[in-house]
């Protein structure tokens, strides 16, 4: 009697089939540096995880190569939770951006493998679709208010429903977020940190003027966002949050450095402008006080720096208890592998807010083919098994690592400040 064909999924039903037989770290620089972890099982299933930490790529690559890969070989790729616990508790030196980015890369690669073994997209493994597509926001910036407003108009024409706006600050040579004319914004431009000078008074002056003009030029509908990028003190952040209230921002991001989570109480006392924070966080402990005291409205911590899907699922559920929504970081220094995984998470998570979406370069998209796509202001993950992103290793090898670090900022008197 002919035996029924073995369904794909059961081919991986034994731990022998799921045994990890190879793992490699791929560093490539198609326009900017990316680090990717590739894990292979005995049954030939490949999983990818993003391990990119802008300006510290080689730190994560060596953490993976020296301390993670030797521990992966021989383990069961299906034991995702146990692997997370092993690499988190087993590291002894817990948390931090390098450790949690390395753990995230393993975690996402294992979820990718699980999806491929089960023949299901990751959003289905998490519990299924909660929405059709993830609302995204694009990055508009300009050297002055008029140029910024023109670029916001261009993003509206491209179909964006939400747009972040950053404009130059008079007298500040290279303010965060302002690209050199016509080129996409890429802050890590030099081997050693470029030094920029910062002026808070002029910034506090121009931002309300920017949003007054944007509302006048583009009306009340479009969602407008702004990234303070950690550059204000709590009381200055409170002043800014209150001064932009008439222009109904979707959020004001990283209004003040958040190591002292309590400092957000001061902003909250003075303004109802929604607050977002967390792209530099790497665990639930960085934001527990902010969330449980309703001091923020959106949590930005994303999959690549926050310990992967396994940890972010816990963080998102905790945030949901306090009606805080997700707003994943999605800059160009997070690879398409992270974007792919994030979109599956965005498609499932009930307390979704918005997804940041900076366009990757054509070179990057050629190295990382993917099945997500932008339609009518939303990004839609694909239906392929796993996260739907692959890597062209031959092409990746043509782009050697290029040492780059993020800028730093100093005040006009020369004192170090936050960039
Ligand atoms: C920014 C980032 O996208 C954002 O919100 O804060 O561009 C950030 O500056 C970079 O990811 C740093 O590498
Ligand atoms: Mg930011």
Automatic annotation (TrEMBL):
Top-level taxon in the UniProt lineage: Bacteria
GO biological process, one term: amino acid catabolic process
Alphabetized Gene3D superfamilies for the sequence: Enolase-like C-terminal domain (3.20.20.120), Enolase-like, N-terminal domain (3.30.390.10)
Pfam families given in the database record: MR_MLE_C, MR_MLE_N
Provenance organism: Dyella solisilvae
Name of protein: D-galactonate dehydratase family protein
PROSITE patterns reported in the protein's UniProt record: MR_MLE_1 (PS00908)
Gene Ontology molecular function: magnesium ion binding; mannonate dehydratase activity
NCBIfam families: ManoateDhtManD, PRK15072.1
SMART domains assigned: MR_MLE
Ranges where the Mandelate racemase/muconate lactonizing enzyme C-terminal domain occurs: 145-274
